[in-house]
Amino acid sequence: MSQEKSFKTFRKNFGYYDRTGIQEYLEQKASEGWRLVKKQFASEWEFKKTEPQKLHYAITYLPQYSNEGSFLLSKDKKEYLELCAASGWQFVCAYKNMVIFLNEEENPLPLETDPEVELTLIHKSFLKHDLPKSIFSFAFFMIAFFYLLFSDTVSKGVDLVLGFFAFLSFYTAIDFFGYLRWRKKALAAAATGKFSRTGIPDKLLSALMDVFLILCVAIIIIKSIIMSEWETSIVIAVIAVMVILNEILDKLKKKAENNWKKNLFKFVSFLIYVATIFFANYILDLF
Predict the structure, then answer these.
(1) Alpha carbon 99 to its chain's center
(2) 113-149 burial by CB neighbour count: b if 16+ within 10 A, else e?
(3) Which tens digits make up the pLDDT trace of 196-229?
(4) How many CB atoms lie within 10 A of CB 11?
(5) DSSP strands (E only) in the chain
(6) Cα separation, 172 vs 161, whole angstroms
């Protein structure tokens, strides 16, 4: 196998503290013949092609380090890794304050044994990693949302783009509140000696996301109609159709039993996405 084909980067997004989701994803990739090499920027994960294996992954959070380099250069690194290796946990990589290990044993001893200590490490790391980003996102969201609400002009495409970024900022900010809601439940479980799963869907926050998205779209449409900026309304309608079609395709893809059907649905989704971009640009050029 060539060097290029033996390594591959996959994209998968997780919340920073979602150790459960990350571990399960890495173990699934190992069963498919991909072994983690490095956690890259944002949602990118680099894997090396191997034989399908049953591997166990574990994630710990070390708030005293800011990145992999600072961890590997630390004086305590050698002793810490030797302690983990004694239980079969091999160091794979680090990303910001998150350190990833794997274990090839069938029933390995857990890397973390005290849920309260783990929660303390996760909390310190999360605040160091995500608090500044959440504050910035919330501030940008407030500025963008009030501009959409109170500005007396509608520029071609500007409100649409601003609404999109306001939604992304709201998503980042609300993810922080999702973490705080999870932490409250996790602390209650830790008091009884239990570890809590991360990445649990939060129905309340999901509902707030849906309501806010609908509200942003409604504001833009109402403003564009009042100010006779019909192109904005048409573009939003086109994007709405794209979202609905992709939701249908996503459900069909999940039900598909054959890989070729899943790949077909992915390809059709891509075509719809490309067609939406071209059609939206065409509409804006017409006006």
Answers:
(1) 18
(2) eebeebbebbbebbebbbeeebeebbebbeebbeebe
(3) 988 776 677 667 767 776 776 777 677 667 666 6
(4) 9
(5) 7-11, 34-39, 44-49, 56-61, 90-95, 98-103
(6) 17
Per the CB < 8 A criterion, the answer to whether 198 and 181 are in contact is no
Evaluate whether 45 touches 10 at the Cβ level (below 8 Å): yes
What tokens does 74 get?
């630390």
Look up residue 103 and give its two tokens.
Answer: 């274990």
Name, in order, each residue with C-beta under 8 angstroms of 23's C-beta and a sequence gap of 6 or more.
Answer: 57, 58, 59
Separation of alpha carbons 163 and 219, rounded Å = 9
- Look-up: residue for tokens 């999702």? 178
Going by pLDDT thresholds of 50, 70 and 90, the confidence category of residue 24 is very high
Backbone angles phi, psi at 245, to 5 degrees: -65, -40
In the numeric block, which tokens belong to residue 286?
């017409």
Chain position carrying tokens 């900026």: 229
CA-to-CA distance for 64 and 71, rounded, in angstroms?
Answer: 9
Q: Quote the DSSP letter at residue 90.
A: E
> What's CA 43's distance to the chain center, in Å?
7
Residue-wise pLDDT for 163-194, tens only, equals: 666 666 777 777 788 888 889 999 999 999 99
Element housing 204 (H / E)? helix 203-226
Rounded Cα gap, residues 35 and 52, in angstroms: 9
